[in-house]
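Researcher: I've been going back and forth with a colleague about how Jg26835 protein might be arranged in three dimensions. Neither of us has a model we trust, so I'd like an independent prediction. The organism is Pararge aegeria aegeria, in case that matters for your notes. Sequence below.
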Amino acid sequence: MAKPVDLELKKAFVELQVKMVETSKKIQVIDSQIGVLKRVLQHADITQREISTLPPETKTYESVGRMFLLTDLAEIKSNLSNRTALLTSRTVELENSKEYLEKNLKESENNIREMVQQKKEQSEAK
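Model: Here is an independent structure prediction for Jg26835 protein. You can compare it with whatever you and your colleague have in mind.
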């Protein structure tokens, strides 16, 4: 005769499964965002290296929407360094939230394992 399924345990498994799916989707989104930010950061870094070799009197243009404006070289370097700092901080934020989600997921799995272990111990004691 088959043992009756513990409804509390079944409900916890369903909740964990839903949480795991949601969390893994969030982690995938964060991974793709981090990838995009790293590519943009790499592009900004390459641009900074190329601009640093230019003489100070070089005419430089900065893109603003669909047009280009004549901009001072020092201002372009400043804008690039600000953008780099902003991208770096955003990448760190995303990595921290990814770590939090992964930690949260592991805690949930451990809680379910503990619940299963307790149910086994209770059934063996009877």
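Researcher: What would you highlight for our discussion?
Model: I'd start with this: The helical segments are 7-52, 73-125. After that, consider the following. The first strand starts at residue 60 and ends at 64.
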